[in-house]
Specification:
This protein is of the alpha+beta class and 508 residues long. It contains ten helices and 27 strands. The protein is 21% helix and 35% strand. The strands form six sheets. An eight-stranded mixed β-sheet has the order 20-21-23-22-24-25-26-27, with helices on both faces. One of its GO terms (molecular function) is serine-type endopeptidase activity.
């Protein structure tokens, strides 16, 4: 299948199990819009079956490969469209502000009804059933008053729900399907209680691929037969990891300056006690993501070297409801950073952290946070590290690809408008605050990063160095936003290890 350079292809769906066809969304005709194509895997022939009218950002097919739903956006309002089987005309059935979620899960066995994940008229995402002819919510299948539902497993074969997942703080599963409930209990028993994530199931829904994990073990992949309950290991994620040598990730809570309870995870190094430890603050990327109880290579890497590692689910993190998420809007350098600062102060007050040995490290938005922290809280950290951290939000906003155009107004609300919020965006962008940075830094930059401009980072580093601040600047010309080359990754983390040891004095 030949395509124009720069074309993006998204896999949409399989067709029937005995077919050679798949559905793809491709933006070849117009970089801003995705049309739907049927691709014959044997012949390579593709045929456009849905032409984007200009506003559709997502297409959804039924079990027969017929596009039955679509989501449109004007940048602020999202609209769910539906059409009955065999019909050519879509009908708008429900509209909501982008801040609210209405995500279709699949068709119900009840005619013209669908299952969806929704937080419309509620704070937390819940599993609901929707009448597509009236747009009315007819049933709430599951909701949790404290947490968002993060994941829903759906049976295409039975047009029914399997289970819903939330985190509090570990993965909790609410089952709709008794067979799967029994299967998961059987698997857990056989695997001594490890966490289980369903990765895939075959089209007949009799065979499962699952992954296990804990905070100390990246886990393994298994094949499970629902009929005979046979569990077969396929592969370990990393057989060299010895869980007995890894460190425990503990769930913690603290109050921020506004009296709001903030959650996070604290990993303490083995054999170092629990007081006056050197600490690495490790903010997550996103910011509309979250830290979860799971195995983290970075966390274990730092803890193995004698550092406590603190991960904070600051305001703007997902999983805690709509109101908590909105607290991060246009607060990338304020509310979010306040929560990180308050978390560090909590560690000091609890005598967990040695106030003179605190560092911060992050990737992407986490790197942006690390730089923001040393701009406005320079005395709190002895050093900081940024891996692909944003330095200029004006450049960041310009760097989105053409197919993000429908979301432009949404970005204005979440991050800021480059024309109307100039003062705030300058305040938030480390590139304009180099005179405030006094903390030793290590910065990694990819030469082909679409989100962080190499020339700007070069100048950023040059300006900081003018103030006699140490900057260990690592550039990999052929990398993008992520470090993908194994040798380059090993080199970066080796330098990071030396850098932290120099300033945190882990042997103390």
């Amino acid at each position: 299948m030949s395509l124009k350079p720069g074309t993006k292809v998204n896999f949409l769906d399989y067709l029937k199990h005995d077919s050679n066809d798949i559905l793809l969304a491709i933006n070849e005709r117009n970089p801003e819009n995705f049309d739907v194509y049927n691709l014959d895997l044997k012949t390579g022939k593709r045929v456009m079956i849905e032409k984007n009218p200009g506003s559709i950002v997502e297409w959804i097919a039924d079990n027969d490969g017929e596009i039955r739903m679509a989501i449109g956006s004007d940048g602020v309002t999202e609209t769910l469209y539906y059409r009955e089987k065999g019909s050519k005309a879509f009908k708008a059935i429900k509209s909501s502000n982008f801040i609210s979620t209405l995500k279709p899960i699949g068709l119900s066995s009840k005619a013209n009804h669908i299952f969806a994940l929704s937080d419309i008229n509620r704070d937390k995402k819940a599993v609901v059933e929707l009448n597509c002819l009236t747009g009315e919510e007819t049933k709430v299948w599951y909701e949790n008053k404290e947490r968002d539902v993060l994941e829903v497993s759906y049976s295409r074969k039975g047009k029914s729900l399997n289970f819903a997942v939330f985190e509090d703080p570990k993965r909790e599963i609410y089952f709709f399907d008794e067979q799967l409930k029994s299967a998961f209990a059987d698997i857990k028993k056989k695997l001594n209680g490890d966490e289980i994530r369903l990765i895939h199931k075959d089209q007949k829904e009799q065979h499962l691929i699952i992954r296990t994990f804990t905070d100390k073990d990246p886990g393994s992949y298994y094949f499970y037969n629902l009929e005979d309950k046979n569990l077969m290991k396929l592969a370990d994620v990393n057989p060299d990891i010895k869980p007995s040598e890894m460190c425990e990730m503990k769930h913690v809570k603290f109050k921020n300056r506004d009296g709001l309870e903030i959650e996070g995870f604290l990993t303490l190094p083995k054999g170092r006690g629990v007081k006056n430890l050197p600490v690495i603050i490790y903010p997550h990327s996103g910011p509309n993501l979250k830290n979860s109880w799971a195995y983290s290579p970075e966390v274990q890497f730092f803890a193995n070297r004698g550092y406590a590692v603190f991960q904070i689910n600051f305001r703007g993190s997902t999983g805690f409801g709509k109101a908590f998420l909105k607290e991060g809007f246009k607060n990338w350098s304020k509310n979010i950073q306040y929560d990180i600062t308050d978390g560090v102060n909590w560690l000091i007050e609890e005598d967990i952290a040695d106030a003179n040995r605190i560092a911060i490290f992050g990737y992407s938005f986490g790197g942006f946070s690390a730089l923001n922290q040393v701009v406005y809280n320079s005395k709190m950290y002895v050093c900081a590290a940024s891996y692909s951290g944003y330095i200029n939000l004006f450049t960041y906003l310009k760097g989105f690809p053409a197919y993000y155009k429908p979301y432009q107004q949404m970005l204005d609300v979440i991050i800021g408008n480059p024309e109307k919020d100039v003062e705030y965006l300058r305040y938030s962008s480390p590139v304009f605050q180099t005179n405030r940075i006094k903390t030793p830094l290590i910065i990694w930059q990819g030469g082909k990063d679409p989100r962080v401009n190499l020339s700007e980072t070069n100048q950023f580093v040059k300006e900081i160095r003018k103030n006699n601040v140490e900057v260990n600047y690592i550039v990999n010309e052929n990398e993008g936003h992520n470090l993908s080359d194994e040798k380059s990754r090993i080199n970066f983390y080796a330098q990071l290890d030396l850098f932290f040891d120099k300033y945190l004095n882990r042997s103390k």
